[in-house]
From TrEMBL:
PepSY domain boundaries: 81-132
Pfam family for this entry, one: PepSY_TM
InterPro entries for this protein: PepSY, PepSY-ass_TM
Keywords: Membrane, Transmembrane, Transmembrane helix
UniProt protein name: PepSY domain-containing protein
Entry superkingdom: Bacteria
Residues annotated as transmembrane: 30-52, 159-179, 199-220, 376-397, 417-444
Length: 458
């Protein structure tokens, strides 16, 4: 064989190898899109809305959340507001939420025997009840629960972890398929007209190029909320010191009640337990009352808009917690209900390095860390994700053979799958549920390929 023939043989083998690898990547990109794109559309729409939760709730529920400030008006005592709330909704007051600004209302959470918890909105200047909603019954809480699939139970919420892992795979394989390889068009420009498949192919590729990094960021920063991975990493990041970050002193009596049971809290404090109040032994215990507790919280400098959970039982504590846009202002303070002494006072600076990093990611994920710029950039990313999904669907519809699902063809040499499967295995180790779903998909793909081969040979 001549040198020329050997060169041609080597070139042909290299070309076939490249084609086989391209087909292997394309096939798994298709599978990832099939699984993830419906979730991405839902997450993008609900997430884009939730970025503006404060602004939208202030408009939608303006009659409950906003108040008129009369000239020389001064706030009434918190106990007066609680009394008004209980007169409107009989039950037990369990939480007082401080107005976020001078024009905001106070919110009293009342536990009732029949209707569960009810949020009662009160004008802080005259103690007048403005109206009620079920606890966490605002439109934005509904959007949040849709975003996290909380309405659909624990099993459905595990899909968030799986979707997040597959979204990362989608971006990685998509970047490989986008790679120019000498092409001039469809790299950063869109060719053709909407009636042509090439237009949708280029729209999908170019949009994916610009939004891929955001998809990975949102997938990774959304993982702390997942059931399996998020729960285990939370334990590892924050140790086992009653659920508080390592280094936070908890040398006071602790209860079995978790901070998360009193209301929304940060990811880092999801397991944190409440300390216990100690009644004085020499006299009949006299709680300090909500007015004094609010005054102490204000004196301690908590950011306005904090929630004050009221004591439950003789050993309960007042828990003031606030999680504003500014991470440095995050804070949780537990007060002894008899002495008013802070039993635990901690903030963002007390979290461990991993806890601080994850909280920063979560804060940015929610559009809080960089103000309006953060919101607008992520809103643009959410719109682009929807466009990415729509263009994928149109492109597939125009490409698919009649009467077929249009799964990309198998590579001629199935060894091309080895590199792809190795990458999948790494992702599966990091995210266990993703790894399990990958094994299921591999089994289904193998079984489907064998069945199709038998049918062709019949």
């Amino acid at each position: 064989m001549t040198d020329v023939s050997l060169g041609r043989t080597k070139d042909g083998a290299a070309a076939r190898s490249a084609t086989d690898l391209y087909r292997a990547v394309w096939r798994w990109h298709f599978y990832a899109g099939l699984l993830v794109l419906p979730f991405l559309i839902s997450l993008a729409i609900t997430g884009g809305l939730y970025l503006f939760r404060d602004e939208l709730d202030a408009i939608i529920h303006a009659d409950l959340k906003r108040v008129e400030i009369g000239e020389g008006a001064a706030p009434v005592a918190p106990s007066t507001m609680v009394a008004a709330a209980l007169e409107a909704v009989p039950g037990t007051a369990v939480k007082y939420t401080d107005p976020t600004d001078p024009g905001g209302s106070a919110e009293i959470t009342v536990a009732t025997a029949d209707a569960g918890k009810t949020a009662v909105y009160v004008d802080p200047y005259d103690g007048r009840v403005l109206g009620t909603l079920p606890d966490r019954g605002t439109v934005m809480w509904t959007i949040r629960y849709l975003h996290s699939l909380k309405y659909f139970g624990t099993a459905a919420r595990t899909l968030i972890e799986i979707a997040g892992g597959w979204a990362i795979l989608l971006v990685a394989t998509g970047l490989y398929l986008w790679w120019p390889r000498g092409r001039g068009g469809g790299v950063v420009t869109v060719r053709g007209a909407p009636r042509n498949r090439i237009f949708w192919r280029d729209t999908h590729a170019v949009t994916g190029l610009f939004v891929g990094g955001f998809i990975v960021f949102l997938a990774v920063t959304g993982m702390p909320w997942s059931g399996v991975w998020g729960g285990k990493v939370n334990e590892w990041a924050n140790g086992s010191n009653f659920g508080y970050p390592a280094g936070v002193r908890t040398d006071v009596p602790m209860s079995n009640v978790k901070l998360a049971e009193t209301g929304p809290t940060t990811w880092s404090l999801g397991q944190a337990q409440l300390p216990e109040s100690t009644a004085p032994a020499s006299a009949v215990p006299q709680p300090i009352g909500i007015d004094r507790a609010v005054a102490i919280a204000n004196d301690l400098g908590l950011h306005h808009g904090y929630a004050l959970a009221l004591p439950s039982g003789e050993t309960g504590v007042y828990t003031a917690s606030v999680y504003p846009d500014d991470l440095s202002q995050q804070r949780v303070v537990h007060l002894d209900q008899y002495s008013g002494k802070p039993l635990l006072d901690m903030g963002y600076a007390d979290y461990g390095p991993l806890g601080r990093a994850l909280e920063w990611g979560i804060n940015t994920h929610m559009g809080q860390e960089f103000g309006l710029t953060n919101q607008l950039v992520l809103l643009a990313a959410c719109v682009a994700i929807v466009l990415l999904a729509v263009s994928a669907g149109v492109m597939w519809w125009k490409r698919r053979p009649k009467g077929s699902l249009g799964i990309p063809p198998l590579p001629g040499d199935t060894r091309a799958f080895r590199g792809v499967i190795a990458i999948l295995a790494i992702g599966g180790i990091i995210y266990p549920l993703v790894g399990l779903s990958l094994l299921v998909m591999l089994a289904l793909d193998y079984a489907g390929t064998r069945l199709a081969g038998r049918m062709r040979g019949a």
